[in-house]
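Notes from the 1:1 (GR / supervisor)

We went over the backlog. Supervisor wanted to see one worked example end to end before approving the batch request, so GR pasted a single chain during the call. The sequence is below; no edits were made to it. Supervisor asked that the structure be written out right there so they could see what the output format looks like.
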Amino acid sequence: MAAARTRRKPIRWSGFGIHAVLLAYTFVALGPIVLVIANSMKSRRAIFDSPFSLPTSETFDLDGYRTVLETASFDAYFLNSLIVTIASLFLVVLFSTMAAFALTEYDFPANTLLGLYLAIGIMIPIRLGTVSLLDLMVSLKLVNTLWALILVYTAMGIPLGVFLMSQFMRQVPSDLKAAARVDGAGEFRVFGLIMPLVRPGMAAVAVFTMMPVWNDLWFPLILAPSEGTKTVTLGAQAFLGQFASDWNAVLAALTLAMVPIVILYVLFSRQFLGGLTAGAIK
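Structure output shown during the call:
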């Protein structure tokens, strides 16, 4: 019995190795972000003398942020990006959830074909159709409007959104939907009843859509390059070209462009991970 008490569990070195790799990858991924933010709050001389140190009372300087806010219209760029991102997220989540409900709930002749068509949208990059999209927006007179970006991003996010939401829709108990129909609930009421059950999937779709929409530079440059419709990414790119030698302003512009999306990702990371793992847990 004493021998049983002194018996120790074997050390699983594989777990330490996995965590070491994950920590190393985290350092590599977050290192550049931390350096950009830290150096954006230092004087120009401190940036070159000690680029890997944090700001101190002697090196702290916000001159780059003053240059950015006084020279560029970053408040308007942020507003444009916010409008485009929120509108795109709402439309992608709404249409993806509705389409996934229809594909998983109803058996109609074109069901499989429509699912395959949407799957092709995941595999083929939408940027291959840039010329056709530009012609379409010109004919609709939507060039240099935020609606052009919203419509393109909605079309870009729906295929993956439908694929993810279909997996969650299949996990909703059929007895629940049948009971609602027996009680006289219509299809829209049934759809509303199962919405809370697939919220992790909706959160995952929102995060997957949010990152490429906020960080995209291609379509704002092609479809909405005017000063009044510039997004924060396009505005930062134009600012970098104008102040290429002013490192304080350059780092401040990069920080202002990336910090909001990092904060949003941190806030929604729990829902994002829950959406990715809910299918495996169930």
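Supervisor's comment: The mean pLDDT is 82.
Batch request approved.
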